[in-house]
Amino acid sequence: xxxxxxxxxxxxxxxxxxxxxxxxxxxxxxxxxxxxxxxxxxxxxxxxxxxxxxxxxxxxxxxxxxxxxxxxxxxxxxxxxxxxxxxxxxxxxxxxxxxxxxxxxxxxxxxxxxxxxxxxxxxxxxxxxxxxxxxxxxxxxxxxxxxxxxxxxxxxxxxxxxxxxxxxxxxxxxxxxxxxxxxxxxxxxxxxxxxxxxxxxxxxxxxxxxxxxxxxxxxxxxxxxxxxxxxxxxxxxxxxxxxxxxxxxxxxxxxxxxxxxxxxxxxxxxxxxxxxxxxxxxxxxxxxxxxxxxxxxxxxxxxxxxxxxxxxxxxxxxxxxxxxxxxxxxxxxxxxxxxxxxxxxxxxxxxxxxxxxxxxxxxxxxxxxxx
Length: 371
Hints:
By secondary structure, the protein is mainly alpha-helical. Helices cover about 45% and strands about 10% of the residues. Helix 9 packs across helix 10, helix 9 (about 230-240) crosses helix 13 (about 315-320) and helix 10 packs across helix 13 (about 315-320). The longest helix has 30 residues, at about 1-30.
């Protein structure tokens, strides 16, 4: 009997030692940071914005890598892969950690940025959070609808569903209810995860434009010669294309609004260019200004039938809150700014000075001071 108890005690002692060793190894596992983080250039080229962690500059991303978890990945397969790639020391400890944290069924598919120095618990919580790497998709103020589609078609991480579709088909897919798609996408930077679709991006941009347009319409000045939000969108797109200096948007808007009130034609080159379409070669000739198109504001009265570009919030705000003043004309100074004139005589003088290199002694700066 004494021998039996001695043997049992020995087994218990061995068990305690083994448990102690396991606990020691488990704690060391938890404390061991990720060391084998190797930058994956093939996937990392455009990750400028990372919600999971991280630095936007690609040149500073050598201490992180992208790690993708596919839908349906099992915990044990994930743990084995992490161990195989040298990111953790023991797959079984990682599984045990997941159960300890009650996250064993919370792992989410996605693309994650693993940073040098992360520990197993950090990895587990990252994978359970769903905070996938996000990539920027930027739509630029002044782009056309087709410019936006062309840009999305070359984005590295987007899944393309609109390739080869007509404008009408694209409008149907993204929910534009107007007869023409131009102007209905809000220019901004949208963050997306890998394999997001071009449709999803454009739906967000369209919803955002409707929201911003409604917000700005609600803050418009009284007695504007603009009757609908759509007319505001049209005018804002012209302002966007005419503006080189952001602070001049309200001044340019003021000129157009005063011309509309007086029944004067807008006579703005960007509308002519838009109406020329593919025939525009970088130059506008006199015959182009006389060519009758629906967009030639040297020929038509009032606004063109649709926007000509994607206007930003500032252009929308300017269209609905134009600067006060008496200027009816403006001409580029050649440095991005404009000279504003109240009379045709002064305008022609300014054209001689700034466009033809001539002399003009009557120039007065008519830009208005605004709070």
